[in-house]
């Protein structure tokens, strides 16, 4: 199992709840996704990121399918104008 974790800092006006809905809906379109979750920061830390995405797929091939899927790319294009920083960690579980 591969976990794909992406953490974002965004512009102040970013529609985080819309990001959450669109990203979590990817499971409907991409069968390789075993699970996908979006967490919106609760502002506990003094220097937080704004949201994260945790996606589980079976293997690297499925991660590649997810990464290049047209619906995933469509969501990326929607959120891209709002992103200030992005960090990624992919690991086997």
TrEMBL record:
Top-level taxon in the UniProt lineage? Bacteria
Q: Which InterPro entries match?
A: Dabb, Dimeric_a/b-barrel
Q: Looking at the Swiss-Prot or TrEMBL record, what is one Pfam family this protein matches?
A: Dabb
Stress-response A/B barrel domain residues are 2-91
Q: Which SUPFAM superfamilies match?
A: Dimeric alpha+beta barrel (SSF54909)
Gene3D superfamilies according to UniProt: 3.30.70.100
| Protein's name in the database | Stress-response A/B barrel domain-containing protein
Which species is this record about?
A: Lebetimonas natsushimae
């Amino acid at each position: 199992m591969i976990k794909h974790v992406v953490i974002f800092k965004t512009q102040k006006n970013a529609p985080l709840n819309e990001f959450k809905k669109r990203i979590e809906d990817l499971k409907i379109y991409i069968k390789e996704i075993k699970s996908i979750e979006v967490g919106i920061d609760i502002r506990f830390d003094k220097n937080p990121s704004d949201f994260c995405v945790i996606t589980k797929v079976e293997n690297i091939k499925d991660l590649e399918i997810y990464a290049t899927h047209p619906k995933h790319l469509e969501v990326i294009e929607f959120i891209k104008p709002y992103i200030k920083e992005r960090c990624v960690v992919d690991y086997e579980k």
